[in-house]
Description:
Elements: E1 8-14, H1 22-37, E2 40-46, H2 52-55, H3 65-76, E3 79-85, H4 93-101, E4 111-118, H5 126-137, E5 141-142, E6 147-150, E7 154-155, E8 158-159, H6 162-183, H7 189-200
Amino acid sequence: MTAAGTALRVAVVNGSPNRPSKTMGLVDVVLATLAEKMPIETSRIDVYELGPDFTQAVEREQVAPAVEAALRTAENADLLIAAIPVFRGSYPGIFKHFFDLVDQYALAGKLVLLAATGGGEHHALVLEHALRPLFGFFQALTVPVAIFATAADFDGTTLLNPRVHGRIEMALNDVADLLRTRAGGSAHPVDTIGIQEATLRT
């Protein structure tokens, strides 16, 4: 359980193979904006860097300790940020493989913020047609406002488009509202989240 008054545990699952990337440029703005609203503790999981012990695993029992630690980081977060570049109309297969190894019930009721980047606006449907159904399977609580940015919204990996910045604000206002709702209006919403997660896992 998260102690009252401590930072919100945020885990980013990054589905981009590139270093640096527009996807993480988008997430960096999300994290910086969130940090202005509340104290956060951030962990980042780069699925493309988990190695052959991850890519060759078929069952959870086959993964190496480092991969197990990454899976538990995602499962134990208060807020999960799922961030992908669109690949052939959907999420990258290696990103999906990570969630193939996540415990089926570990994300039940967990707040999940969806973020994606793509070459053009027509790729934005990946958020509703691919990512949201994936986390619906896990019974996670996906934040209503998802975030999408196109290549034209960036200068290199720096997000410039004010419209996307506004979308980020809207999404994080949703996050704050959901935290307050879960806390029942208390001053320390994270504590209540920890209680609810513990109840879900018993």
